[in-house]
Amino acid sequence: MPADSLHENRLHGSLAFPFQHYTMATAPDRIFVPCHWHDETEIILMKQGQVELLLDGSRHILSAGDIAFVNSQQLHQYSSISSAVLYYAYVFSLDALRFLNDDITMSSLISPLCSHELDFPAVLPRECPCFREVYSLIGKIIFSSEKKEEYYQLSTKAHLYEIICLLARNGLLRQHSSTNKQSDMCRRILLYIQEHYSERISVAEISKNLCMSPNYFSAWFRRNFNKTFTDFLVHYRIEKAGRLLASSDISVTQAALQTGFENISYFIKKFKEITGSTPAQFRKNQTSSI
Q: Rounded CA gap, 99 and 63, in Å?
């Protein structure tokens, strides 16, 4: 079971309809969603630009037109890697697709998906026969979610059932692979960063905590996170600082110090490099978008 402190424990949608559509765009700031997991399944539809998606340590580059799936309790992280990114994320509870009666559809597809015996594919291959149809169905779900036409909840469920049917028919639902040593190590590293990001963290210190040599840890981290440990830590701290600036009235200096930056000039430089805005501009953008 994934560690609780990486669990995004918030309600997506409502208790009456646990389905939620999110529009993610880089303007005016770039995207960095740090590693987390949730009980719900997530469907990603790329519309513009490129995003790096990490799934349990595996790296996927998503471009405009791509479709990806994040399975329940799967550790994942998003980073925009182009100047203009737009993607839709649709998060929903598989349990909400259960039937009252345990018929053949429940026993062969819905229940195995809910109990993690079956998984959705990480990225839907564009060459698969059902790609265009799945793409169209996801678009219809997003449109229904935005317009909220009468009984859109029913059409949403119907489209999700169709997607599951198409994936199953084309052999794209796969047997669940239990958490391996690689993803366990990813979780341990992320938990350490989460607990200590506001302090001084050195490669020597974290590698010792994980019983690795510094050189082995650095190589392992870059291979699994596609960033050096230092770069990843800076991105993580900037994301935390951005949240502080957007949700409180603390000063830029306080935001820097509370997220582990001792040099304010370096903080402002890295903040602009990563988000595309200075800390002051970022706060103004967040305030004006409310």
A: 35
Residues 240-266 as b or e (16 or more Cβ within 10 Å = b): bbbebbbeeeeebeebbbbbbbeeeee
DSSP-assigned letter for residue 7:
B
d(CA 52, CA 61): 5
In this predicted structure, which of 25-29, 170-174, 278-282 has the lowest mean pLDDT? 25-29
Residues 23-62 pLDDT 10s = 988 755 577 787 788 889 999 999 999 999 988 778 899 9
Q: What is the DSSP letter of 227?
A: S
CA distances from 40 to 25, 50, 135, 233, 264 (A): 22, 24, 20, 27, 39
DSSP per-residue string spanning 119-138: E--SB--TTSTTHHHHHHHH
- How far is it, in rounded angstroms, from Cα 182 to Cα 1? 14
Residue listed under structure tokens 């935390």: 240
The one-letter amino acid code at 208 reads K
Structure tokens at 167: 């994936």
For the four alpha carbons of 252, 254, 260 and 264, in that order, the dihedral sign comes to positive
Strand, coil or helix: 56: coil
Q: DSSP string spanning 12-50?
A: SS-SS--EEEEEEE-SSS--EEEEEB-SSEEEEEEEESE
Q: Would you give the DSSP letter of residue 198? A: T
Q: What is the pLDDT of residue 31?
A: 74
